[in-house]
Predict the 3D structure of the following.
Amino acid sequence: MSYSLAISNGDLVQQGSRLGLVYGVDKLRQDINCWLLERYGGDRFHVNMGSILQEFIGGIISESSRAEVQAEIFRVLQNYQSMQLKRFKENPQQLSASELLVSVDDIATSVGYDTIWASVKLRNGSNQSTTIKVATNA
């Protein structure tokens, strides 16, 4: 089982004199949120991490915009799942079933001139369903 430092509104979460931690499905939710909001190619140590969702903001919104955003979110989730599979093959004890992304059940999006809203319904290795809501703006 792995863990991450808890993040809320871009800041580390403090719990008394310690930093908060997230495990399981909460870690999965936080990781995917970070992957979707991080600019693609912005981390030289994790070159496949991130999305190009910011590039849709401020452009012309057409009939295909929602489909393009959904495809980008799905691409990011596939990259995340590939990274998890690689980690799992290297050391299966490192990940718990509750933090494994098993399936993407639904991606609902809405695109405005300055904001993209997405609701992603996922299922983890413990067969728990969770929904991640993401809004990114200029």
Observations:
- The mean pLDDT is 89.
